[in-house]
Amino acid sequence: MKTQSKTTILLLSAFFAIILIFSVFIYLSVSNYSYEDFYKLLEIRAITTAKTELEENVSPDARDLRDEFFEKLPHEKDYIFKLEPGENFYKVSAKMNIPVDFFKTIIDEGKAEYHYRSLFYKGIKYSSSKGNFIVITSAENYYEVHHAVYLKRTLVLAIAAAFILSLGIAIYFSKYVFKPITKITERVKQISSENLHLRLPVTNKNDELNELSVTFNDMLNRIETSFETQNNFVSNASHELRTPLTAIIGEADVALSKIRSTEEYIETIKIVLDEAEKLDKKTKALLFLAQTGFNGKIQKFDKVRIDQLLWDVKETIEKINPDSKIFIDTSLLPENPVKLKVKGNEQLLHLALTNIISNACKYSNYKTVYVSIGASDNKVIVIVKDSGIGIPESELKYIYDPFFRASNTKNYEGYGIGLPLTNNIIKMHNGEIIVSSLLDSGTTVQINLPIGNYEI
Fold it and tell me: Which residues pair with 450 in a beta bridge?
């Protein structure tokens, strides 16, 4: 049984139980009230009977008035018994089919009540000049017999109507509650390895379902990145590794095809060594690229000051290549240095920024590269701008594919690993890279990283 059906049944059961409890309460309350009211009516009739029958100097007109104004009750009867010393009323109780305790209660307490099925008895002790008497009035409870039937019928109809209404409310409420879950389920069914870019809709509501959608989307981000990384690794590894291997095998075959001179063997070994070194670099790059995907491994994250990290990156690049010219603009630094702290892995962020800035130096033929750093309330922003060769507009969408190199970079050394590697690292830190470029006019790279949860 589906959870939606269980919820409908649960709500319906709760509604029905509440309605049933209140109906029983109403029925019992009305029944008890009718009993009490009818006993009072019988007591009034018993007192009236005693006064008209046992008091002296009562005119016949009084008896006529009683009979005229008192409506005759169904099976109404009046009994008058004189209290004599030693009278135990056993014979009377047996004859009237009334417990003898009824009479004892009247004698001891002055009044008593008793009913059997629909016949009710009210007895009182009455003293007059003629002596002490027990006066009993009995009648059938008309209200209990007729009104109770009407009340039962009304309550049954009300319960049936309430049940139908509750059923409609329960079905509507369960559909309303589970509608977002149904949408999520339908959306999830559409997601497969061919369309991992699809995401669940996220609203501004601060509820559990929205939190579930956000968490699921985060999981899809990690899966998509990992899936793409592995696909790229498999598809590109075979192609990129085959080239140096083919060169090595070819040179070896040529060298072994006949006896050659020492100089020729040395030249062949140099070529093989050069291709082997290329193969080694590409293998290491591919492995590192795969390791930076969302593969579920826990990376060690600490507090990292991005401004200090940029100065370290500048120093590293200038040591590797003294021709590099890097100008760091600090005019946009925030007054509060805490806004420059991010939660991240310092080595990976150092590698990512090094790749971006060193590419800017290389592809601008080592002209000055401008690096700006600033911060908003929730993110640190790093902008790297060069005046180099730029990237053709039609090729911008491929820049994160491993081993892709723009068509105008043939005269520059590289493997096409740096930017995809940097993109993976920034994604690991929940950041983003925005690249804009004009051919022969330079490239601008903006990196946004979320500020760490530190007190400001």
Answer: 379
Q: 352: closest CA among 434, 418, 289?
A: 418
Q: Look up residue 272 and give its two tokens.
A: 């093989």
The whole-angstrom separation of Cα 34 and Cα 148 is: 9
Task: Count other Cβ atoms within 10 Å, centred on residue 126.
Answer: 24
The CA-atom distances, in angstroms, between 350 and each of 185, 235, 242, 278, 304 are: 41, 28, 31, 24, 10
Q: How far apart are CA 106 and CA 134, in angstroms?
A: 7
Helix (H, G, I), strand (E, B) or coil at 432: strand
Which candidate, 360, 362, 363, 349, places its Cα nearest to that of 422? 349
Model confidence over 303-358: pLDDT tens digits? Answer: 999 999 999 999 989 988 889 999 999 898 988 888 899 988 888 898 889 999 99
**Each residue of 236-260: pLDDT tens digit?**
566 567 777 888 888 888 888 888 8
The token pair that represents 88 in the structure block: 């135990």
Instruction: Please give the DSSP secondary-structure letter assigned to residue 141.
Output: -
Q: What is the pTM of this model?
A: 0.46
